[in-house]
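Standup notes
- DV: blocked on the single-chain target, sequence here:
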Amino acid sequence: MNLKEIINGKVQTRSGDKVRIYSINNEPERYSNEFIHGAVYYGGQWHLMGWGEDGRFMKTDSVHDLVLIRPPSRWINVYEPYLNYNCSYMHSSRETADNNQVRSCKRTRIACIEFKEGDGL
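- DV (later): unblocked, structure below
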């Protein structure tokens, strides 16, 4: 992970705890090795923490390292247009998409596409 991903994306700790980023230190060597400053929510309260430029809490892997939150996959069934009506329905899993093909579209499914929020098709 790099700093641009941390700034532009949603992050959590490696263990799944919520994270708030408060500031980015432009001169970490002057003050400490902590480049990123924020807080982590665990044990029912927020704890102040700092991370290196790469999102690591320590030099070795830690449960407090920052990781990007990836949106869950979604599946969309695509059908041929029928009487100028476009049938496409989104599902939370491939299995659900396979089991819920829309019969009212009067056409067979032509594709089942996996995507994540923000992906271009």
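- Follow-up: Residues 73-116 form one domain.
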